[in-house]
Specification:
The protein is α/β, with parallel strands linked by helices. Helices cover 42% and strands 13% of the residues. The chain is globular and about 65 Å long.
């Protein structure tokens, strides 16, 4: 991937400090002079200097500027942290958002999401930390939505979190220790790989195909390593858009039951209608499945609110772990979301999002056909598609070429668990794919 301006400046200054060119105690250029020297805005210089300070390579003096310092041994990045940070370079680029065309972004455009939520006025009442499991009203809504889909869930099985990534953190802390081994989809969710590296947990990729993970590979790896966890996504997977079929879902759950393994089904679009496939919890009823969901992808990325659903005793232990780590999730945010659901705005929003996404996906597939490229097989629905590149191309090189033209792409290599040669591919975001500049770029590849 293309290195961001902030990253480039940070690395340049850090290397000058490490080499001794910039001595300890030396004053760094003023923000204005640095911006002129590097040819960037002062905001980018501020971000680069702040990163130097955060990692101990510089210190700030009020009214005097920034000065070189050497990080103490205790503040030097650990190998685990460096590996984790490097694994989410794609996420860093998404957060900085310096690209004009965001075909590889992981979220729908903000204009597609519910912008009326902040205007909701909440009634007076207790606004403290909230309960151990989270706001009861929201957990009741979550449970009811699953019951209506034929999946038995009680509010006591639901634990609210600060988004899906917080839920993943809780599961990893609860079930995995440093040196343990877990299983993951390959290709799979790359921020998960970073979390596991940071925790010192080994992970083995299970090949993911159009019908789900390879049951034979899963059985062999689970038998050999006896992992407690298998991380997957049963519907419209990120990054491929593929879903489980019924035989694969049965096979995965039988393996989990036989070997005492929990299956973590992380689905950020769990409430999106119109997705084909078999959801694991519909067969398992949360005996072995731990479901993770979030409201951020459908309502707003600013609403950092998600949840876990699992067996009651496990839900209690995860709620207690949440209490130890963060005291509670945001009762205010949860009240807001509960009000959006109660007023039926959520139902309207998710249906509108699904219809708009389907239109853009169909249009994107038609345009891809005109340049001789098509995802095969087609996605089961949802936000993502997996586009194999023609022979002879390297997806990382293609992403770098696109970045020079202001186009942000997500190379498939970043979603893989190993560096073994794979068919080069791109993850597509159907809500952002229909930009003529992207298709002009694709035509230039052929």
């Amino acid at each position: 991937m293309s290195v961001t301006k902030t990253e480039r400046i940070f690395q340049s200054l850090r290397q000058r400090i490490e080499s001794g060119e910039l001595q300890e105690g030396a004053k760094l250029m003023s923000l204005r002079h640095a911006a002129e020297s590097f040819g960037v805005s002062k905001n980018i210089i501020v971000a680069a200097y702040d990163r130097l300070v955060a990692q101990g390579w510089a210190r700030s003096r009020q009214g005097a500027g920034f000065f070189v310092s050497r990080p103490a041994a205790a503040t030097v990045e650990s190998v685990n942290f460096r590996e984790a940070r490097d694994s989410v370079s794609l996420l860093h680029a998404q957060l900085e958002r310096s690209f004009e065309v965001l075909v590889g972004d992981g979220r729908p455009p903000e204009s597609w999401l519910l912008n009326a939520a902040p205007a909701i006025t909440l009634g007076t009442g207790e606004r403290g930390y909230g309960g151990l499991h989270g706001l009861l009203a929201l957990r009741e809504y979550i449970a009811a939505s699953h019951v209506s889909a034929g999946i038995r869930v009680a509010p006591a099985q639901v634990v609210t979190t600060f988004g899906a990534n917080h839920a993943l953190d809780l599961v990893i802390r609860r079930f995995a220790s440093r040196g343990d081994t877990v299983l993951v989809d390959d290709p799979g969710y790359y921020p998960l790989f970073a979390k596991l590296k940071l925790a010192g947990v080994n992970f083995i990729g299970i090949p993911r195909g159009p019908a789900g993970p390879d049951p034979d590979a899963l059985s062999q790896a689970a038998t050999a390593h006896r992992p407690r966890l298998f991380f997957t996504q049963s519907l419209a997977q990120n990054p491929t858009g593929w879903s489980y079929d019924l035989p694969t879902a049965h096979a995965v759950l039988k393996i989990a039951e036989r070997l005492g393994m929990f299956v973590v089904d992380d689905d950020p679009f769990i409430d999106l209608p119109g997705v084909d496939g078999v959801r694991l919890a519909s067969l398992d009823q949360f005996e072995r499945v731990i479901q993770i969901g979030t409201f951020s992808k459908i309502l707003s990325p600013s609403l950092r609110s998600g949840y876990l659903i699992t067996a009651p005793q496990i839900a209690t232990s995860l709620a207690e772990l949440k209490m130890v780590l963060t005291v509670s999730s945001s009762s205010f945010t949860e009240r807001l979301i509960a009000e959006v659901i109660r007023s039926r705005r959520f139902e309207k929003q998710r249906n509108q999002l699904a219809k708009r996404l389907a239109r853009e996906r169909d249009a994107g597939l038609e345009r891809l056909a005109t340049v001789g490229m098509m995802p095969e097989p087609l996605p089961a629905g949802g936000l993502y598609g997996w586009l194999a590149l023609p022979d002879g191309f390297n997806d990382l090189d293609v992403a770098r070429q696109a970045a020079k033209r202001g186009i942000f792409l997500a190379p498939g290599t970043l979603f893989r668990t190993s560096e073994a040669p794979q068919t080069p591919a791109l993850r597509l975001n159907w809500s952002r794919v229909n930009d003529s500049r992207f298709f002009s770029f694709l035509r230039g590849l052929s």
